[in-house]
């Protein structure tokens, strides 16, 4: 299967407006897959507790941080998300010389969620993910069917001061620190000769496989990628387009800039077809520790026809029930053996409403334009409100408790009037 999956971006000062880090990602997944946005509060766990991930059960830690996640509804992990400390993580599918086929283990999406739940800085998330990778490995179908669609993972991780690019091949990995400027990743290895941290046996393993002679300067992408780049041509094109879009706004990147990049269809970043952008996220994370971060999520496909809705971590945050999919417990076909013998209805309330309106936008030009204008008006109103909060701090905490849910309700009210 061609590598059609995701673009992730991060911009740091001085490429951004103000002392802020801007994170963004399109989650490109099968076009019929539902992506939900869920909030999980911080929690304490008893000694010896375990956590059931998508395919395997692992040891739980004593405390997990509050997280907001955008995730395919059928699995435990997440495509992207943030935690209460301003850590943001998105992952990408990557393919290289090492086979990604193998036994079920942790999915890259499981590692995203585990990193957010267990790390209060970006570098600690690198530690969490690589230690879990070493202990449990990565593997298992990444689609809700029997296709055996598997891949290794790269991760773009940011916090309030820096970002890290982490790329993996089986249990081996390399990581690069990003302290300023901007960085984007697509479905190809991007770490070359600047390697700030790495698996202790990563180079020796490459030499033992004949991929590296042990003498020339070590280049992670060259050594661990395919000999031919034909399979990753599409992702390479998106990577270059994304980099150019970031460069175009270098020094003035804002949340709106990142949203516009994620909506760009000409570049292929806003993907259409059998794989499409099924969920999108933009985060604004001030470097000032006293200022709140704002995380915007669509919870619906195609950011061009979606509203980026804000979420802020605050005491008493309410549930995101309109963007939570139905659950099926032990009866879920994902949990039964053999897996994926059927597909239940995973559409959440917002998804179903948005699906009907998207059909109107597609088939009725004038009517669709008016709906889109109302959606953009709602979004801009929320961006303006959040800008004041990020700049001045939180003055009305009660208003923020149901911030995301209330915005979802306002979005659905637009659809119902349409």
UniProtKB/TrEMBL annotation:
Region Disordered: start-end pairs: 324-348
A GO MF term: cysteine-type exopeptidase activity
Any one biological process term the GO annotation gives: proteolysis
Pfam families membership: Peptidase_C69
Superkingdom as given in the UniProt entry: Eukaryota
Family: Belongs to the peptidase C69 family. Secernin subfamily.
PANTHER family: SECERNIN, SECERNIN-3
Protein name: Secernin-3
Taxonomic source organism: Knipowitschia caucasica
